[in-house]
Amino acid sequence: MESTPAAGENIGVLRKTRGMGQAKLAREAGISLSYLSKIEVGLRPATPPVVASIAQALHVTTARIYGQPFMGPSEQSDRLNDLRSAVRRHTLPKEDQPDPADLLRDLRHAAVLRADTRYLELLRVLPGLLGRATASALASDGDPTAWGNVADVYGCAYAVAHRFGEPDLAEMIVARQFWAAQQTWNPQAEAAAAWNEAGTYQSAGQYEDGLAIVERAITKYEAGCSTGPEKVVHLGSLHLRGVVLASRNKDHKATRNHLNKAWALAEQLSGDVLQHNLTFGAGNTALYELAAHVELGKPDKAAEMSAPLIETPPPGLKPNRVGRLCIDVARARLATKDLAGAEEALKAAFKVAPQMSEIHPMSREVLRVLFILHQRSKPELMEMAKRAGLTA
Asked: Which site among 3, 17, 106, 220 is 20 to 30 Å from 240 CA-CA?
């Protein structure tokens, strides 16, 4: 992999291109000059809220600052174009209606690839799967299960577009997911689509708007769906999305409110449950609480929570969730100046969820800081940096 710029480097280039000094950018972004300087040279990580503020000041998207550091750019570009074409022709699938058993098998395989963070493999199968699922739904005479399958495939597609830094494609996918959910009465599919819609606002750094989407979806879902485990999973997942948005918006009250409601719902389940690409339960709620402490400037609390979680991750959580836990633990430990602990957490992330760890913005940011802080001689750190595209 060729070396690709990290967020801090991109900030410096964009700032200079606009003829803006560090002092002016720091002032407009609401951060200190010292902090901005350290971000640009790689001594401090560029956190999502800071990137959002800087992107607004520079009049660019957050995706422009993060860049696209993934492996295999040629194949990935071709596959993304295939997916974009399939999403665009959402009512005109090229594929024939499949055998129901074959379609069910392929849907389960896609869900496994997503949960295992095998994004490039998922990208390879998504265009055809989307066409086959849509062809089946169009011939189903409004069957809720058939259209729910289409919505689920779009949910997998959103995960790929989000991870590969394609915000415009992600937004188009969310619109198609809502379209599929609304072909018949399917409140679960609509809730899952709202979860992803709020995610597009989260990626763009528009946290208040994302919270509005979450709160509207919660109100609608609570009123229009019967009780049961499926409702708990979808409602709880919406509250977890609210935790992320509120904590990045530095809204302590809203963060605690969503956390309290998520914990109350988690108590109704015996463990973590994965439904329609959403994971919810006590284990995942604990992971979100840890991440919220990091976003709210309480890395010591997050680090305190981290030891039992990272040593024995909650049962039932897939690699995508455990990998994200490890990345958040690395962030917390870096903030508390536990450099060795941060490196160990990143090693765990690369082990359990390698593709996600290579391209996740905060994984790359923590790696960049560790790499620059006089630790270039560490072979394992050097290897992770190469895999993330931070060095050639």
From this structure: 106
